């Protein structure tokens, strides 16, 4: 895309959000607040997905989903209730954000120490 001879560095209709979470932080909150924390932040489906794994993968999954929600809010540009944002896996296991009945692209990665999420939000509807 060129405007007045200059290249546009990005598509202004697509916003990107990134967040990094230390898995130990989530582990600590879980040990102090437990079920209360889970129910405040995550949907039933997200909790079931994480709890199906043993530790440390369980905490990694929760940290990645927490990072995804934060990254998505950054992409949208405003706060959203955590439970309104759901991280879902498609039929091939690829994660995406579900918000207001619409899917949004998402990339997640985690290790025993760190979880990172990159979320995308289209700021304008594509023209038909």
Would you mind describing this structure in some detail?
By secondary structure, the chain is α+β, with helices and mostly antiparallel strands. It has helices spanning 23-33, 35-41, 44-51, 57-76; strands at residues 2-3, 6-7, 14-22, 86-89, 95-99, 102-110, 114-122. It has one domain (15-122): Alpha-Beta Complex (Ribosomal Protein L22, Chain A). It is built from four helices and seven strands. The strands form two sheets. It has a five-stranded antiparallel sheet. Strands 1-2 form a two-stranded antiparallel ribbon. α1 crosses α4 and α3 packs antiparallel against α4 (57-76).
Order of helices and strands: EEEHHHHEEEE
Query: What is the CA-atom radius of gyration, in angstroms?
Result: 16 Å
> What is the oligomer described by this structure?
single chain
Strand content: 25-35%
How many structural domains? Answer: 1
Spatial sequence of strands, sheet with the most strands: 3-7-6-5-4
The coarse overall form would be globular
Number of helices: 4
Mean pLDDT, all residues = 91
What is the name of the CATH topology?
A: Ribosomal Protein L22, Chain A
First-last Cα distance: 19 Å
CATH superfamily: 4'-phosphopantetheinyl transferase domain
The counted number of beta strands is: 7
CATH architecture: Alpha-Beta Complex
Structural class: alpha+beta
The profile of the biggest β sheet is: 5 strands, antiparallel
The helix content is 25-40%
